[in-house]
Design a protein that fits this description.
The protein folds into 2 domains: 48 residues; 250 residues, 2-enoyl-CoA Hydratase, Chain A, domain 1 (Alpha-Beta Complex). Helix content is 48%, strand content 15%. One of its GO terms (biological process) is malonyl-CoA biosynthetic process.
Amino acid sequence: MANEMDFEKPVLELRTKIADLKEYNEKSDVDLSKEIEKLEHRLRKLEDDIYSNMSAWDKFQVARHPERPTTFDYIQLLFEDFFELHGDRYFGDDPAIIGGIATYHGMPVTVIGHQRGKDTKDNLYRNFGMPHPEGFRKSLRLMKQANKFGRPIICFIDTKGAYPGRAAEERGQSEAIARNLYEMSDFEVPIISIVIGEGGSGGALALGLGNQIFMLENAVFSVISPEGAAAILWKDAGMAKKAAESMRITANDLFDLEITDGIIPEVLGGAHQNVQEQARLIDETLAKSIRTLTSFTKEQLIEQRYTKFKKIGSFEQI
C-alpha cells in the first residue's frame, strides 16, 4: 500500500482483510457479519497497542507522512475570511511560507505557516516547505503588521528546515532567520506557535519564538534531522533510527524539557486519518491559549516571552 510505514503494516493488512470481507459479504449469500465483527474488535486492539507505543522514529515517520494535513488545511478549517498576503517587499514571494489576515472566533488575527506540497508538482513549487530568505522576510513583514494593528499572531510550523542552497545563502538566509528571532522577541501582541509536523532547525525557529508553543502528539522538533545527525555522529545515515531515539525530538520529550507548553492529542493513527477532528482538537488548545494571552498587557507579553526562553536549557557545574 502506498505511503505505508513499517510499524503500521499489521494494521493496514488487517484493514484490507476487513474491507475485502465486507465486499464479499455484500455480494454473496453467506453471512460473515460475526467474523467481521471479531476482526474489527481485533483491529481496534491492534491499533491501540501499536499507536500508543510508537518509538521516536515511528513518530518521525508519521510527522513526515505525505498525506499529513498542511498549514493551509488547518487555515481552511480553523479560520474565517482568510486573505493571503504575498511578498517580502525586497526580493519576491516564497510559496514555502503562506500567511495573511483572518478571523478566529470573531477576532482578527494574523496566520503564518510553512506550506508543503500535496504532490510532486506542488512540492517543487513550494520547495518541499523549505523557505528561502524571502519567506522569512515575508513572515516578518506580516508579523510587524500584526503588531502595529494589535492582532495576535498564530504560526504553524512544518518544515525540514530552511533551504540551504547557494541562492538562499547569497540572499542572507542566516540573517533573515536571526532577524525574525530578534524582532519577534519584542512584539507586543500574543504569539502562538504550533508544530503540526516536522519542526526542523532554524527554519522552524524563525516562526517559533512564541509566548506559547504547542506540538501535535506525533510532531517532532529538532535542531537537525535524524538522518543528518546519524551522518555526523556515525558517518552513516542508516543509523537515523538510533539517532532519533537519542535526540529527544518528540512532543513528550520537548514538553518534559519545558521547551513547549503543551501537547495536542492526535486522532488514532495520525492527523491524516481525520483532518476535521484534528482541527477540532487544535481549536480547543488554540482558543484557550488566545484567551489566556489576550488578558496580558503588552509589557507582560514581552516579559513572559523573554522569561520563557531565558530559562530553557540547563547546565551542570563541575
